[in-house]
Write a structure and sequence with these properties.
Strand 2 and strand 3 form a beta hairpin. The radius of gyration is 18 Å and the shape is globular. It is 76% helix and 5% strand. It has a two-stranded antiparallel sheet. Strands 2-3 form a two-stranded antiparallel ribbon. Helix 5 packs antiparallel against helix 8 and helix 9 crosses helix 10. The chain has 256 residues and is mainly alpha-helical. It has ten helices and four strands.
C-alpha cells in the first residue's frame, strides 16, 4: 500500500502539469478546431523564462518569490500566443485555409521557437536555480515534498480559476458561444477574432506556469523539453475529450 500511495502522489504531481498544458490544446481546439502543435514550444519558453527570472532573483527562498517567478513567464508566453494568432492564424482563417495549412503553420512556429531557444540558451541542459529548501512529509513509507505540494496547489488553483472564468464571466460565455458557432456568436455581438486571440493568450500563459513548475521539479531544462511534454499533454487532452476543459483536467491528472 505504501508503494501504491507513493506512486499515486508522484502521478498526481506530474499529471497536474500535463493537465495545465492540455488545457491550452483543448481550449484552442474547442474554439477553432486546430491542434496547436506550437504549444509545447511555448511551454518550453516558459521554463526558460522562469529560469532567467529565478537567476536574477538569486534563487528566492520564500513562497513570496512565486509571484514574479510565474508572472514574468506568463506575460512572455501570453505575448507568444497573441503573436501566433495575430500574425499567422488569423490570416489563415480569413483566407479560408483548410485544416492542413494551419497544422503545418503550427509545426513551423514550433520549430522557430525551439531553434530560437537553442540559439539563445544553448543545446545543453541548463540547471534550474534552486527554489526553496526541500522538506518532506511522511505517511508510512510514502514521502511528499513541499515542492510537490506547491506544484499541485498551483496547478489546481489555475485550473479552478480557468473553470470559473469560462463558466461565469461574460468573456467566458463569449468563448463558449464562439466554440459552438462562429457565425451565431457574431450575430449576438461577439468579437470572434478577439475571443480566439484571448484563447491563445490564456492557453499560452497556462503553459508558461507548467514550464516553470517542471523546471522547479526536475531541476533542469532543455530546448527539446516541449516536444515530449507536448505529446503527453496532447494525449491527456484526447483522453479527456479534445475541446472539453473539465475533461482535459481529468485526463491530465489521470495520465500522470
Amino acid at each position: 500500500m505504501d508503494l501504491v500511495l507513493q506512486q499515486t502522489i508522484n502521478g498526481v504531481t506530474i499529471g497536474a502539469i500535463y493537465a495545465l498544458v492540455a488545457l491550452g490544446y483543448t481550449m484552442v481546439y474547442g474554439i477553432i478546431r486546430l491542434i496547436n502543435f506550437a504549444h509545447g514550444a511555448v511551454f518550453m519558453w516558459g521554463a526558460y523564462a522562469g529560469m532567467f527570472i529565478l537567476t536574477i532573483l538569486g534563487g528566492s527562498k520564500s513562497v513570496i518569490g512565486l509571484a514574479p517567478l510565474f508572472i514574468g513567464p506568463m506575460m512572455l508566453c501570453a505575448i507568444f500566443g497573441f503573436a501566433m494568432d495575430r500574425i499567422v492564424y488569423i490570416r489563415l482563417r480569413h483566407r479560408g485555409a483548410g485544416a492542413l495549412v494551419p497544422l503545418i503553420a503550427a509545426l513551423g512556429i514550433s520549430l522557430v521557437l525551439e531553434i530560437s531557444a537553442m540559439l539563445t540558451w544553448g543545446k545543453e541542459f541548463r540547471v534550474y536555480p534552486k527554489f526553496l529548501q526541500l522538506s518532506y512529509f511522511t505517511w508510512g513509507r510514502a514521502v511528499l515534498s513541499n515542492m510537490q505540494v506547491i506544484l499541485i496547489v498551483v496547478c489546481l488553483v489555475m485550473m479552478v480559476c480557468l473553470h470559473l472564468f469560462v463558466t461565469y464571466t461574460r468573456t467566458g460565455k463569449a468563448m463558449r458561444a464562439t466554440s459552438l458557432d462562429h457565425d451565431a456568436a457574431r450575430l449576438v455581438g461577439v468579437d470572434v477574432d478577439r475571443i480566439i486571440t484571448l484563447t491563445f493568450v490564456i492557453g499560452s500563459a497556462l503553459a508558461a506556469v507548467a514550464g516553470v513548475l517542471v523546471g522547479m521539479y526536475y531541476g533542469s531544462v532543455n530546448f527539446r523539453m516541449g516536444y515530449v511534454a507536448g505529446l503527453k499533454a496532447f494525449s491527456a487532452a484526447v483522453l479527456g475529450g479534445v475541446g472539453n476543459i473539465p475533461g482535459a483536467m481529468i485526463g491530465g491528472l489521470s495520465s500522470g
